């Protein structure tokens, strides 16, 4: 005796649907996706690094003999300023007072010239400045950079050291603070 299984069209449709859902459901379990947006929010920065020699540093000029008073003196300070900047910037310099002072004795700050040394890592337009109490642009830095070193030359020309501005002043240490300000352009 032969046994036959009779399947109706309706049952075949249900079986095919169930099998399709089983396969589709398995595919969804193994192929899940999620999308995230990542934003980079940038700010313009210009920063003078705390490791800069100019932060609390000292530049000394010694006038010990006749030759010193009759010659130009230059003090090159490596790593004077270490600057990080995300866009072009301006670096200004000024004296915090009109004179180098030793008690009541004074020497005008304009005896000193400040300029960027050629060994500096920062590129841009550099202009030597004669120190004054007014902010003056020392360099307009180009591009961007991280922890780039700016070496500075502090110079007292012979014409100033052999003049009455310095010559004939009482012996002693004459002091004035110099401030550097970096600003994004």
Please sum up the structure shown.
The chain is of the alpha+beta class and 185 residues long. It is 16% helix and 35% strand. The chain has helices spanning 9-30, 66-69, 158-161; strands at 46-48, 73-85, 89-95, 99-102, 105-108, 113-116, 124-126, 129-130, 136-141, 145-156, 178-184.
Question: What does the main sheet amount to?
Answer: 5 strands, antiparallel
Question: What is the string of SSEs from the N terminus onward?
Answer: HEHEEEEEEEEEHE
Helix content: 10-25%
Instruction: Report, as a whole number of angstroms, the end-to-end distance.
Output: 99 Å
Number of helices: 3
How many strand segments? 11
Q: How big is the Rg?
A: 37 Å
Averaged pLDDT: 89
Q: Strands of the biggest beta sheet: in what spatial order?
A: 1-2-10-6-8
Describe this structure in words.
The protein is α+β, with helices and mostly antiparallel strands and about 180 residues long. The chain has helices at about 10-30, 65-70, 160, and strands at about 45-50, 75-85, 90-95, 100, 105-110, 115, 125, 130, 135-140, 145-155, 180-185. The strands form three sheets. It has a five-stranded antiparallel beta sheet. It starts with 8 loop residues before the first helix and ends with a strand. The relative contact order is 0.22. The mean pLDDT is about 90.
